[in-house]
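Summary of Year 1 activities. Much of the first year was spent building the evaluation harness for sequence design. The harness presents a backbone, in tokenized form, and records the residue chosen at every position. We chose the following record to illustrate the format because it has been used consistently in internal testing since the harness was completed.
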């Protein structure tokens, strides 16, 4: 069942490739699947539980992540995303159940760094060491011949390759962490909030890199609280709340299913915005001073259109559909759908 408290917002980003995810059902009345079965899984959680004392951070979770796709792991703060990633990486041990990578626990792979590269936070290099040396070191540990300079170039750190990382910004450290994770030429890349704290250009380049990794045939599993951070990136989604998977499947189908019918925005150029919207095939449903109600476009599309036209948007709000989607598990969306003033962030909670 989708919980009533699914609140969401979508950033002004491009559309999503509609692909499918294979997921092991948790029970007959278990989490919602909105895609069809497809390729075999690369990551699989089976009845996975992790308790900290009496608290189940991850509660009997089962899901699978398709090989060769980018899968988003979406959930609010405290949902159990990081704990699940840590379970796959064997940084914590499950209370029960299993977290398998390509059918085995990570430690059973001869060189784990060649199977999985992971970034859970941006702090992974000695501050006194040069970036290029940290990447070389990681490559040496994994036994690969990775060209550290080329890899740093791929993550946008070519200029900083020779610098000691103690002076790096958060965004640079995140890129460096990604380069270190990729030094083992891994089949699977696991990332926790990889675009958090990055400026828009850095976000775009990190997302482009992740798409390249997918296009190279790697499996990318990326956790985020924000659908906006994933929407234009992921093929599939697994959604977790309060330690339980509440749904999984095609990201496009997820968005379509919960797409509101109208988007309300504030703009100091309402007429120019209306014209741009009409040119793009959307409809201006209503105007009231600076507030414009737009139909037929997602917030993501609207953001793109406004950005392309050089029009600033403020107070973007999604309007819940007047009739909730049909189906036994598609409860009405509760709470105010939110997107912040710039329309750059959204949250599922
Ligand atoms: N080492 C720990 N000891 C006790 N409780 C923990 C520990 N690690 C996580 N938790 C708890 O488990 C729950 C899930 O935490 P987790 O960090 O996995 O969530 P999350 O979805 O990654 O959240 P966020 O998006 O804020 O990082 C939270 O209630 C958290 O407080």
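For this record, the design step produced the sequence shown next.
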């Amino acid at each position: 069942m989708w919980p009533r408290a699914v609140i969401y917002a979508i950033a002004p980003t491009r559309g999503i490739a509609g692909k499918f995810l294979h997921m092991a059902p948790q029970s007959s009345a278990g989490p919602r699947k909105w895609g069809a079965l497809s390729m075999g899984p690369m990551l699989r959680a089976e009845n996975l539980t992790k308790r900290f004392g009496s608290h189940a951070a991850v509660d009997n979770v089962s899901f699978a992540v398709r090989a060769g796709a980018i899968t988003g792991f979406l959930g609010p703060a405290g949902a159990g995303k990081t704990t699940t990633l840590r379970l796959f990486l064997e940084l914590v041990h499950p209370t029960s159940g299993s977290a398998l990578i390509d059918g085995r626990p990570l430690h059973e792979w001869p060189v784990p760094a060649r199977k999985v590269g992971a970034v859970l936070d941006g702090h992974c290099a000695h501050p006194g060491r040069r970036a290029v040396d940290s990447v070389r070191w990681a490559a040496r540990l994994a036994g690969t011949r990775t060209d550290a300079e080329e890899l740093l170039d791929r993550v946008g750190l070519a200029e900083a390759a020779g610098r000691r990382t103690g002076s790096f910004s958060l965004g640079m450290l995140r890129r460096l962490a990604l380069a270190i994770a990729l030094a083992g030429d891994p089949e699977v890349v696991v990332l926790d909030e990889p675009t958090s704290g990055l400026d828009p250009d850095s976000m775009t380049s990190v997302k482009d890199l992740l798409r390249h990794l997918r296009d190279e045939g790697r499996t990318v599993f990326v956790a985020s609280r924000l659908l906006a951070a994933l929407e234009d990136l992921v093929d599939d989604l697994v959604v977790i709340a309060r330690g339980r998977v509440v749904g999984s499947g095609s990201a496009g189908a997820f968005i379509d299913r919960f797409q509101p019918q109208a988007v309300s925005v504030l703009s100091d150029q309402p007429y120019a915005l209306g014209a741009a919207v009409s040119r793009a095939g959307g409809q201006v449903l209503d105007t009231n001073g600076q507030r414009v109600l737009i139909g037929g476009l997602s917030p993501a599309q609207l953001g793109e259109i406004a950005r392309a036209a050089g029009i600033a948007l403020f107070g973007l709000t999604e309007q819940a559909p007047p009739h909730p989607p049909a189906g036994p598990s598609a409860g009405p969306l509760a709470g105010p759908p939110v997107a912040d003033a710039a329309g750059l962030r959204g949250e599922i909670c």
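Residues 32-257 form a domain with the Rossmann fold fold (CATH 3.40.50.300). Quantitative recovery figures across the full test set are reported in Table 2.
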